[in-house]
Amino acid sequence: QVQLVESGGGLVQAGGSLRLSCAASEGTGSKYVMGWFRQAPGKEREFVAAISWSGTTTYHADSVKGRFTISRGNAKNTVYLQMNSLKPEDTAVYYCAADPVPFRSGSYYSTDSYEYDYWGQGTQVTVSS
After folding, report:
1. Can you give the pLDDT at residue 20?
2. Which of 42, 61, 53 is nearest to 113 (CA)?
3. How far is 7 from 123, CA to CA, in rounded Å?
4. Could you tell me if 28 and 92 are in contact, meaning their C-beta atoms sit under 8 angstroms apart?
């Protein structure tokens, strides 16, 4: 069982930056794709970014491409989401998720929330105009 804990959310003005962190529990020697998703009030959860278990491949949704960057920490059990040039439409609860992929290549990632077995509790990001 993997536990994920997000941190780093908050209130920021449009154009500002935030960095979200997600720490996975110990014992995650297995391979996991890590992803960030978000859900705004009244909207469905949407994919934001994903990173392969090796850290060599990343993918970002078109809505955040060029502004957000997903990365892994050196210990591989931490994942970050650097968010720059934030817009009011980025306001949402952001969730970290883990997809166990013991047999996948180091370049594999997924954008489908149904592929992810473990989820954090979410962290609120609010961007004021």
Report:
1. 98
2. 61
3. 6
4. no
Q: Pick left, alpha or beta for residue 66 (phi over 0 → left; psi -120 to 50 → alpha; otherwise beta).
A: left
Largest Cα–Cα separation, the chain: 45
Phi, psi of 49 (to 5 degrees): -160, 155
Q: Cα dihedral sign for 85, 86, 90, 96?
A: positive
Q: 99 near 32, Cβ under 8 Å?
A: yes
How far is the CA of 15 from the CAs of 86, 92, 109, 123, 129, in angstroms? 5, 16, 29, 19, 9
| Partners of residue 22 on adjacent β-strands | 6, 79
Asked if residues 81 and 97 have their Cβ atoms less than 8 Å apart, the reply is no
Beta-bridge mates of residue 16: none
pLDDT recorded at residue 2: 86
Provide the pLDDT for residue 29.
Answer: 58
Two tokens at 36?
Answer: 């960030």
| Low-confidence spans in the chain with pLDDT less than 70 | 26-29, 76
Q: What pLDDT, on the 0 to 100 scale, is given for residue 28?
A: 53
Give the HSE-up count for residue 85: Cα atoms under 13 Å, Cβ half-sphere.
Answer: 7
